[in-house]
Amino acid sequence: MRFDEAYSGNVFIGSHPNYEESQVVIYGMPMDWTVSYRPGSRFGPTRIREVSIGLEEYSPYLDRELDEVKFFDAGDIPLPFGNPQRSIEMIEDYIHTLLKDGKFPFGLGGEHLVSWPVIKAMYSKYSDLAVIHFDAHTDLRTEYEGEPLSHSTPIRKVAELIKPNNVYSFGIRSGMKEEFEWAKANGMHISKFEVLEPLKKILPTLSGRPVYVTIDIDVLDPAFAPGTGTVDAGGITSKELLASIHEIAHADVKVVGCDLVEVAPIYDHSEQTANTASKLVREMLLGWVK
Fold it and tell me: Where is Mn(2+) bound in this sequence (predicted)?
């Protein structure tokens, strides 16, 4: 896949036409090969871009416009359908190239397993990396029905790589008892149900550190984001998630990369989920890229 020009098709609103001149690279990871419930998140990256045309390029929250951040939309990584092992290898290789070129990686999923190779590559550059994880689910299983490559396993893989005490999960409201017990026994931070207030308490402890942020759209209540593969009642509002993004923006942490995953447009004919995701992308760009 070429890095010096966007794919032919829609790009996220306000994207810069030149890769070399851009600080940020948006890329899609259209994979849903391992989902345990409803597939369809492989169509998320494209739809998030398409609905972005309805966004204002100005954020009244941050008083910034998209033209203040040079970001290049590189399109989707051409992942091999049905092959999770090869797909995650391709994603990791792609991120290594972005990091070599000094770019800020901004991923659009796709199922949550796609975050694993990204964070693995990020850790090779930032040995003191911390991960902030917004999700309805713990994602701490070692396998699902005997398969270790599953969208229910990425955070466990990340925690075992960078050490559990460097992983901070928020909004969690679903998972096996054993997952919660493992997190507690190993010093991993899990905030059940809530996001904003516990995040405010955690951020000062990450002062000055490189941070990667991964957002699973199902951290939102299904009333705000029905278009996802594994909906789970009792989530936070879109207003709370936006406030959390802004809290990170104002904190003394260095966000070095991020992703937004699990948008499955087929389950939301109103396109509420894709439009919400698109706005989140705008705020992440303007808030986290200085």
Answer: 112, 135, 137, 139, 216, 218
